[in-house]
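Anyone opening a protein record will find just a pair of labelled lines. With that in mind, the following record should read easily:
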Amino acid sequence: MSQALVIVAHGSHLNPDSAAPTHAHADTIRETTAFDEVKVGFWKEEPHLREVLRTVESDEVYVVPLFVSEGYFTEQVIPRELRLEGWNVSEWDSDGLSADDVTLTAADTGQQVTYCGPVGTHESMTDVIVRRAETVTGDPDVGPGFGLAVVGHGTERNENSAKAIEYHAERIEKSGRFDEVQALYMDEEPEVDDVTDHFESPDVVVVPLFIADGFHTQEDIPEDMGLTDDYRKGYDVPAEVEGHRIWYAGAVGTEGLMADVILERAAEAGADVGEAVELVRERTRNVSAMEA
C-alpha cells in the first residue's frame, strides 16, 4: 500500500513568507523518498486544508500538524477541515503535551488518515532548538559560557503553548549544555522584554518557538529586547544589549532539522520511513555548517 505524508500549517494571507518553512521541510522529506507523496495544506493559503486530501492518491495518509502546541487548530480546525469521521479530542488522551496519533477515515475521500500530534510538543523539538543555537552562533559546540532563552507567545493565548516552552526549556536545562536556560514570553512573566535581567552569562541565544518568521519574530521581539528601535533598520547578530551579547535566532520552525521532527511524528504513528530520519539529520547538519 502506498503511503503519503501531508504537512498541515496555518499559513497567512498577510505574510507571503509564512508558508516557506512548510514547503522547505516538505522538499527535504520528499528528497528522502520515504513517502510516495508529500503534500502540504494550509488554513489561510492554498492548497487549503479542506481540499488537500483530494490531491493525494495514496490510500494511507499520515497528517502531521506544523504547529507549536496542542489547541484550537490541532483539536478542532484541522480534524474538521479534513472531515475525519469520529474525531474526538479525547482520542489523544493528552495532558497538553502528549498527543500522539489516531487513525480515522476521511469522510469524503475514504482514505485512512493517521492524524498525529503537533511537532512542537515532540521531544525531538528540543534538538531543533539546540541546533538553532548552533546555526546562529556558527558553533556546533555552543553552550559553555552561554545562556539560552526559549521564547513563546504567552499563556493568555493558549496555556498549552506555555507548557511546550517550559517542557523544552527544562529538557535543555537538564542536559547541562548551557550555563543558563530560561523560558520567556511575549505577553506573560517572565517577559522577553527583560531578557538581560534573567541571565548572568555574557552571551545569550534567543530562540522563539514559532513555526515561521512573521510579525512577532521579525518586529515585536527584536524591538522588545532592545536589539533595535525600528525593526526596519535591522539589527546586529550578536547585538550588544545592557552588557550582554544577544544572539537572536529567529523562528525555530525555519531550522532545517524541523523536517526530522515531522518524520519522527509519522514514524511513531506507523509510517515506514526507512533511514529518512538519519538522512535528514545528516543533511541538515551539513547545511547548517555551510550557512554558519
Strands lie at 3-9, 37-42, 60-65, 101-105, 112-116, 146-152, 180-185, 203-208, 239-241, 244-248. Residues 1 and 59 are 7 Å apart (CA to CA).
